Amino acid sequence: MTRKAMSCEIQSVNQRLNLHQAKFKLTAGQSTAAFQKLNPYLIIGVGFFVGVVTNIVGWRKVYTFSSVGFSLYPFLINK
User: Fold this and answer.
1) Residue 17: is its pLDDT beyond 80?
2) Are 53 and 62 in contact (CB under 8 A)?
3) CB atoms within 10 A of CB 53
4) What are the tens digits of pLDDT across the range 26-77?
5) Counting beta carbons within 10 angstroms of the beta carbon of residue 62, is it exposed (0 to 12), middle (13 to 18) or buried (19 or more)?
6) Contact 58, 66 (CB under 8 A)
């Protein structure tokens, strides 16, 4: 591989990395904004509820349920 080809390859990879970083920063900003809009008592209540449910049901069932929820989340967002 020549230097010019390597340089073009590196620039291409760098551009893709910059694009991924920009998407990540946008998503992180949106997540932070959404989290800040929530009521703190709601966050505490949900955390308490999840703790109680986890203690009653068990970690494996909670993990399975949450993994299914995360896989369905994109469909729920894009109504």
Assistant:
1) yes
2) yes
3) 13
4) 999 998 888 888 888 888 888 888 888 878 777 777 778 778 777 776 776 6
5) middle
6) no
DSSP 16: H
Which spans in 1-79 are helix H? 3-37, 40-57, 59-77
Look up the pTM and report it.
0.50
Token pair for 28: 């992180």
Task: Give CA–CA dist 16/7, Å, rounded.
Answer: 14
d(CA 31, CA 15): 24
- SS3 of 2, please? coil
- The answer to whether residues 59 and 51 touch, using CB atoms and an 8 Å cutoff, is no
